[in-house]
Amino acid sequence: MADVYRAKHLAFNEICAIKVVKAKYADDTAFNNRFKGEAVLTRKLRHPNAIAVEDYDTTEDGRPYIVMEFVKGRNLRSVIDEDGALPVRRALSIALQVARALAAAHKLGITHRDIKPDNILITQDERGNEAAKVLDFGIAKVKEGAFTMAAYTATRKGMVVGTPQYMSPEQARGKVGDEIDSRADIYSLGVVLYEMVTGRLPFESDTPMGYCLEHLH
Model pTM? Predict the structure, then answer.
């Protein structure tokens, strides 16, 4: 639903990433509100294991965009696909870093709701150690009263949100609002950890609904 570009800041001479909404969604108010919500949420979340948002604005043709830190590396999906099952120590190190980012988010009243390998970037820190960074808080649920964003709602009531392969049972049931909390992220991270260690998902299905039923039962 958006394109991400590698860009160079002309004044600061720094490389950054710019996420721009596709033209066909420029007039979708609900989507653009969710996109802006991602920027506001992630801007408030300052953590070494979360992607930093630097700015939010709109292009000349009316498309919203987010300026984010540029991270050089691969997403965890590519790592698993290319390297296969990871050694337990490496998998635990990645999971721990993701858990730290989520703990910081949960402390702010943010539930990610879409933790999966595609939303975890693997890079290196300043000392050359493997580092994980969580991105895409676009469908995050804001705990009521956490921010002054009463008018912002990430999803409509009754909408199932998340990725079926990694979805918590409460998400699979279509629960919303306060019925979904930080435990949903912990469940999804558990599925990701399982996949890192074994190289496969805990459940297999040919359809999204099939995955939801597996998580439920």
Answer: 0.85
